[in-house]
Protein 1
Amino acid sequence: MVKTVELTTQQTRTQTGLSAAWWAVVSRFFLHGLIVSTWVSRIPAIRTSLALTNAHLGLCLLGTAIGSVIAIPLTGWLVTRYGSKRVTAWSTVGFSIALLAPSLAVNAETLFLSLILFGAMAGTNDVAINAQGVAVEKASSSPTMSRFHAMFSIGGMIGASLGGLVAARNIPPQFHLASASVLFIFISLLTAPFLFEAGDNRRKRSQALRPSRIPPVLVTLAAIGFCMFLSEGAIADWAGVYLKQDLNASLGLAASGYAVFSLGMALFRLLGDAIASRLGPVRTVRAGALLAAAGLTFALVAHSPLSTLPGFALTGAGFSVIVPLVFRAGGRVRSVASGAGIATVSGSGYIGFLFGPPLIGLIAQGASLRMALFVVVGLSLLAASLANAVRGASAAQEAHG
């Protein structure tokens, strides 16, 4: 009887700890979205204050992607070496501090350097929080990655909205970003003790993930990540331009293309775990990619700006569940440490995010922007054809466990 009571008490404590860890990870994804969108909301003001041309600003913004691509492989090793709890805790604080750096730039060169730092901390935090998410999900035996990613999208929408209100009041970026940085650091420190001690640093610390040792299933997952990040970057950078340039939309309506895309993504990420539980990860990824391809095709063949919006919303809904499921699968590949697997998928994705928008621009220059955006349709179909890799990673993990 005493043993039964002790066992019940221990189970209750475990469940309480997992619940607290779940909310701590939710806060990290939410913060990540807030930090990114807070910076994005002040880009126009910083561009004006530094008198940058569009070309100069575009080159500066490459610093973010470069910093992420450099940092992500190192982060996989850090998570394997120190555990995702510790790396998540310090990287969220570091990312919050790095938010202030762009507002202190005095010219294009210093802005570029500050954005390399910002991108490096963004990539580090991205890998760490996803490793924490995978660990909590595995411990709770309940799908939850899609909801974690939904919190990133919701944080992004809230940060962008608040940033727009602050910018409208002509509050200097330095004061805005410094105040936000302090608030985000406070939330990070407050929630850090509740992060999950995952034990994801118990594998051989000398085990490096060399290219020759990457399992084929992880290569395929990285390919899906590349397709999805490239596609999301292309929609983010070119949807508004397409609506304005090709369909003569007003500036406000042109901005609505990416807005409804983001809304569709956020809403379906909240539902994604339930959908994946019902359909299974493979059918969910395949259906999402096919929905995105159909939605974007609809948007690209439409003849008026308003009629494109349902297509862009469906594209966001289709993309919504793919990245969380691919990250989950990358963290569950047998013989690969969770952090290293996620870093491989994430690193491939950021490379796609880096080269995607310029690639669309080059194709548009030689053909048309509409034809260039059909590349995203093709990538969505490619991702659908590779969806079995999600099952392969899960099966490998189950066999290993």
Protein 2
Amino acid sequence: MDKDDLSEQERNFLSTISHEIRTPLNAISGISQLLAETDLDNTQSEFVDIIQKAGSNLLSMLDDLLDVSRLQSNDLKLNEDVFEITDTVQTVISKYNSLANEKNISISFENTPEVAGTKILDQKRFNQCLSSLIGNAVKFTETGKISVSCWIDQTSNSAGELYVSVTDSGPGMSSEDLKEVFSFNHDNKQKQPSFDGSGLGLIITNQLANLMGGSLEAVSTIGSGSTFTLCVSYKLPEEKPETSLQASGHILIVEDNPTNQRLLQLVLGKLGHTCSLANDGKQGAELFLVEKFDLILMDLHMPVMDGFAATAEIRGSGAYNADLPIIALTADVRHGIEQRVYDAGMDTYLSKPFEVPVLAATIDAAIEMSGEQQQARTA
């Protein structure tokens, strides 16, 4: 067996293990998010917080391992999302405010006026880079403050470069350590044994920055803290007229796992949607012909008929709404799975475990786009 075959086997093994872990982790993450919004006493709130943090750490380590595999095989694809940069930066900062407050550390944020407004780049990967840099700054800083600054260099009327710098008052690094901080040879875990994590954050952030047309640079002095500056390329969206379409709808859940069924029913109800349930792809395709749905959440691997075959049957049914949005919602993160999803006729892909706000935004955007398409057809 040659080296490439072994590498492919390793990637498949990681993907399979990740799938098996993500399925129960989806329930842990989703239910704990819902539980946190109920009336809890202080002890119960503490327990829920511990569950959420432990689940988040486990998911981060899974994602790090998979990202390294994808980056090494050039299999990581970027999305083009339209979003507000300052909102995203402030959201990431808010994730770490609690830990910073516990350590009596302040986190400040400033940006130039040009940063305001929506930009086009991969929101998930940008968020991931920010989380790595700000999270590290909070973890390694014991006293003082952390400053986050954001500015842009607009290179044309439709594109530019976005910069985010994170400066801490932590212990800093020597010039020797600084040279190796983005390398797999850098033994960060050995030097900082008290901190959780895979130790891959900066390595992945550096590679993601390069993939997004930018770079990651670091300046540090022992005893005086560190500054990491992230640069990524962005595009400007075309201006579109505002719409007043209602984003709620009737959603078909096609999912065979009972726990995930219940989780989705609870989440969709909380978001103001109604839903019906199918236990496998065959039931889903049959129910689609009976009820009027605005969107389908489709698991991929189910008994009787899988999500790929069910999507093909729905798309080929000839029904008036056979082009309704279908979102793949699955724990399968194997090599090439996203392309298979799109090739099968599904519109987008979300991996389990999902964040409720991300699922909500994806559903809203899909239903709104579907409504616009229907209006265009009847105009």
Protein 3
Amino acid sequence: MAGFDELFVEFGQDLRQAGMIIGTDDVLTFCSSVALLDPTDIMDIYWSGRATLVRKRDHIPLYNIRFQKFFFDLPEDEGDPRKLKIKSSANAGSTLEVPNVEQGLPGEAHDEETRMGYMASASEIWRHKAFAECTPEELNRFRRLISTMKVSPPERLTFRHQAHPKGKQLDMRRMARETMRTLGEPMTLTYTRRKPKLRPIVFILDVSGSMADYSRNLLQLAYSARRANTKVEIYCFGTRLTRITKSVDRRSPDDAMRLAGEEVMDWDGGTRIGDSIRQFVKESRRIRLGRGAIVIVCSDGLDQGEPEVLAKSMESLSRLAHRVIWMNPHKGDAVEFVPTTLGMIVADPFIDEVFSGHNYKSIEEFAKQLSRMG
């Protein structure tokens, strides 16, 4: 919220100058409501302002017009980075289109106030659209949206303890020191709990030709996870395994995707899942990379290698990793997934959980559940 509260106060003043009755308490309520949400999300800003700043139904068309001009109709030399960030996020997500209600000034409201709800519903349908059915423009918007996704890293409990007011174990050492200082009983009871630590994550992404509709969006998910947790390693494979962690470690997602594409030489080629996983297991044992990690394999299971190699590699991977997660776009929206490809049938006994990743909604749900896998 830092830096955005002044912008929202300016928006309230803009509405007041346009003729709407807005008090200081309304503006403060507006800022407080946005602070509880995401100050860069255009939908959160719109509905927070509409709920707190609009007192009369007749003022909704005017509110829509001023919202459009304040946050979207920006001059070319606009230098306010806050407005540019909000507008770019709206363009990336394509979740909001303020109605054009030039004829709907106060006193002439019709059905325009309900159109925003229809657009929100359309956005929800859009999130369920499979990547394979999207246009290049829609895929580009998806990648920008995924690049801003909040991916909470999972945690594990170590054997070390730290002081915590809600701990369940008494801190006997600290209480003993306090007793010696006071020459009597400790004045307060202190507790400890096991110290949490970020759990490593490894993405192994299939970039073969059969995954062309999904690989770049899944790579964008891995990029977002890397931005949130430095203990994220990213590999790509087609016919061979390539580590691209350093390539995607860039502030700009466009630069990260470009460098990753330049480093992977077998993009949109064949698939050898077993050989690639065997190479990863061999390398991880050498540098102790995947031990205790959550390994996420993103592939459709169409393997051109030997099934015996895949079975042995998956067995070794399951012993090495904390959990083995498989993201297969062919799962779709099915609750119970029955593998049909030979690669998935061979790997299925060694997989802890299968996710889809075929549309934005499934990736969003996976990102939310990732933090609970520690």
